[in-house]
Amino acid sequence: MINSDLKNYKTQFKQTDQSSMTFKKPRLSFWQIWNMNFGFFGIQFSFGLQQSNMSAIYKYLGASEHEIPMLWLAGPVTGLIVQPIIGAISDGTWSPKFGRRKPFFLIGAVLASLALIFMPHSQTIWMAASLLWILDAGNNIAMEPYRAFVSDKLVEEQHSVGFLMQSFFTGLGTTIANFTPAILVSLGFLALTDKMENGIPAATYWAFFIGAFASIGTILYSVLTTKEYPPTEEELKKLKEEKTKGNIYSRTLNDIIAAIKTMPLTMRQLIPVKFFTWYAMFCYWQYLTSTLSISLFGTLDPNSEGYTKAQILTGQVNGTYNIVCFMVAFALIPLARKIGAKGVHFVSLLLGGIGLLSIPFLNNTDILFSFPNPFSNGDVVISSIYLFSFGLGIAWASMLAMPYQLLAGSIPKEKTGVYMGIFNMFIVIPMIIQIFSMQYFVYDLLGENPVNVLRLAGVFLILAGIFTLFITSKQKSSI
């Protein structure tokens, strides 16, 4: 399959008229789209590990509930700084040998893999926090060009397939990452009580080690099986002219500022949607373990067995919503064609918000069903606490695809990288606001109760869905 795809690419390049100012991209096959996006699996495996484990790792190292938000600052800040810069730089990059986006995939994967290996060995809170900065920097360096890669490689009619393929790999990668500690325990390789000297469970250590391999391995697969389209002579001329204009950093900054000033209307209308969505998701990732621990096991003591069970359960319910994500990702394609990306996103966020609001009413004693455990003797028991994952999974699939689908047709293709980087600011700025507001007054206003933080997240997802209904235009910028 790989050799066949590479032959197809070579044929396409031979037929390309490099002197032409326009290049008509061919439609890609399912497996070509699969190969080009496969590296997204490793990136999201890494993100899945941190989403389900970082709050617990901080608490094992002695952090308090009040300190948790600030310790998550690495992700949004590195995203805010790295993604627009990498997007602008990659827009102006071309190497006949290495391509335009692929070098950034590899650099990011190496950084992320090293951080994943060292993270479970953290001896202090600040060592873990520093490694999280490196991990998020690596993931953002790799992820931003991946968004632009879809627009680079696919014709406009296939954009939704490309972004939903990324949703599929996001769900699959995060699911496996979330279930890995529980699988290691279920297989009998490790016990729930096995811990390293720093108090971090051994299952967490091995999950991060597996994540490091997944991060670099899947990126390499995509790099080796996918070729980038070379720029036309006209585009090469523009790139050379840009290089003669001055320092790359000042040019990058100017590109970002110019793009912000001429931001398309659709992009502006997405700002409140993204704000409420990502404020809510950061609340969820930070406080889910504590919410489950206090509501199901009656404790917030990180040294208790109940807290360890809550951490394992966090991975399992997160894994469940990601299973739902990759199961429904492709089902959203025909639905989006029928009712539009806007309609799909509204309904999906509404279901996600309802799911989060239902968490306090669910438990792990009311059994919904059970099935044989494929990894050990006994059954896997699914209790009512898993119900919220179904609504959140549908919302997650939509979050990772529909906003990009709404945006892709409204931005000029020669500025895809920088606009995708700026669009990421609509994700990370709400996260930064969440961190400081939660740290200094919102957590107190919510009665210092993690359960109330999850309730707030549910309300915010519903608000995000309502703001989606106000998106009315997909006009392109004139830059």
Number of domains as seen in the coordinates: 1
Q: What is the helix/strand order?
A: HHHHHHHHHHHHHHHEEHHHH
Major sheet: order of its strands?
Answer: 1-2
CATH architecture label name:
Up-down Bundle
Q: What is the global morphology?
A: globular
Quickly name the level 1 CATH class: Mainly Alpha
Poorly predicted residue ranges: 1-21, 475-479
Query: What amount of the residues lies in strands?
Result: under 5%
Structural class per helix/strand content?
mainly alpha
Taking Cα atoms only, what radius of gyration do you get, to the nearest Å? 22 Å
Q: What's the tally of helices?
A: 19
How confident overall, as mean pLDDT? 83
Q: Give the helix proportion (percent range).
A: over 70%
Gap between N and C termini = 40 Å
Q: Can you say what the CATH homologous superfamily is?
A: MFS general substrate transporter like domains
Number of strands: 2
The major β-sheet equals: 2 strands, antiparallel
As for the CATH topology, it is Growth Hormone, Chain: A
